[in-house]
């Protein structure tokens, strides 16, 4: 069985609308045209409309939100809902990114609510999990990752879990330039796959597990060479169109 690799760029809080449109125009020129991989851009909410306006059926990338609220509408000042993202052409949404968890207090219960809302509104949740350095040093990596997985996906049927993407992002590797080694990533990805299968069975065997944390052109080829790694969630290296396109091309090479 082959899972299509997914390369997702998380812009975080970067680029104005004009800069976002410029990025997309440049990226279109530089990106691989192959259908062998899926490519996702997750710009700030305020740029989704403008980017979506420029898109055509020929585009080989789709859009994702960086977050969503679990209610579809209501008195939630400053929040954005699943139907709003869907209406702007989003196909996926990040849920539980470590910055959301650490800086904005998101709990596994919040993640669970958001995953349910995303699925209800036809968005593929990309559920981010990963341990801190302190937890890794204390030998708790598997326990933390399992807890985040089981609580974040609590109560979901196998059919629903089969529509989810997992991003394993060790917190100590995000934005630090210190990526996990291939062996470290492979070990946790294998553990995540085993946990998913033991909880939900064979129906979830095609769930994609992405690696995130200081991925760049320098280590992408080696990461994509690993059968357990179904793609990458990329922060810093996705902000430059040529660099992000290069990583996408490396994923195509590993997939063809
Ligand atoms: C991220 O924030 O999801 C991420 C992986 O960031 P970076 O690539 O900058 O480490």
From TrEMBL:
Database matches in InterPro entries: Aldolase_TIM, TIM_sf, TrioseP_Isoase_bac/euk, Triosephosphate_isomerase, Triosephosphate_isomerase_AS
Gene3D superfamilies: Aldolase class I
Pathways per UniProt: Carbohydrate degradation; glycolysis; D-glyceraldehyde 3-phosphate from glycerone phosphate: step 1/1; Carbohydrate biosynthesis; gluconeogenesis
Source species, domain of life: Bacteria
Active-site residues, record numbering mapped to chain: 97 (electrophile), 169 (proton acceptor)
GO molecular function: triose-phosphate isomerase activity
Keyword rRNA-binding: no
Entry keyword annotation includes Isomerase: yes
Key words of the record: Cytoplasm, Gluconeogenesis, Glycolysis, Isomerase
Summary of the function given for this chain in its UniProt record: Involved in the gluconeogenesis. Catalyzes stereospecifically the conversion of dihydroxyacetone phosphate (DHAP) to D-glyceraldehyde-3-phosphate (G3P).
Assembly description: Homodimer.
HAMAP family, per the entry: TIM_B
Family statement: Belongs to the triosephosphate isomerase family.
Stated name of the protein: Triosephosphate isomerase
Taxonomic lineage from the root: Bacteria, Pseudomonadati, Nitrospirota, Nitrospiria, Nitrospirales
């Amino acid at each position: 069985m082959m899972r299509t690799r997914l390369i997702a760029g998380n812009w975080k809080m970067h680029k104005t609308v004009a800069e976002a449109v410029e990025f997309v125009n440049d990226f279109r020129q530089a990106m691989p045209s192959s259908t062998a991989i899926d490519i996702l851009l997750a710009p700030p909410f305020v740029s989704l409309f403008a980017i979506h306006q420029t898109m055509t059926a020929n585009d080989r990338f789709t859009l994702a939100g960086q977050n969503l609220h679990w209610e579809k509408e209501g008195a939630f000042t400053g929040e954005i809902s699943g139907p709003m993202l869907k209406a702007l052409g989003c196909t996926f949404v990040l849920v539980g990114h470590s910055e959301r968890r650490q800086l904005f207090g998101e709990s596994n219960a919040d993640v669970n609510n958001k995953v349910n809302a995303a699925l209800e509104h036809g968005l593929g949740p990309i559920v981010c999990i990963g341990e801190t350095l302190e937890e890794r040093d204390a030998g708790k990596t598997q326990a933390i990752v399992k807890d985040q997985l089981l609580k974040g996906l609590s109560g979901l049927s196998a059919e629903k879990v089969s529509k989810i993407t997992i991003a394993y992002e060790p917190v100590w590797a995000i934005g630090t330039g210190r990526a996990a080694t291939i062996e470290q990533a492979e070990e946790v990805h294998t553990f995540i796959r085993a946990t998913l299968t033991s909880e939900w069975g064979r129906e979830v065997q095609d769930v994609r597990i992405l690696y995130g944390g200081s991925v760049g052109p320098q280590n992408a080829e080696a990461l994509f060479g690993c059968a357990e790694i179904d793609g990458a969630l990329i922060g810093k290296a996705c902000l430059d169109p040529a660099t992000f396109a290069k990583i996408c091309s490396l994923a195509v090479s590993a997939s063809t």
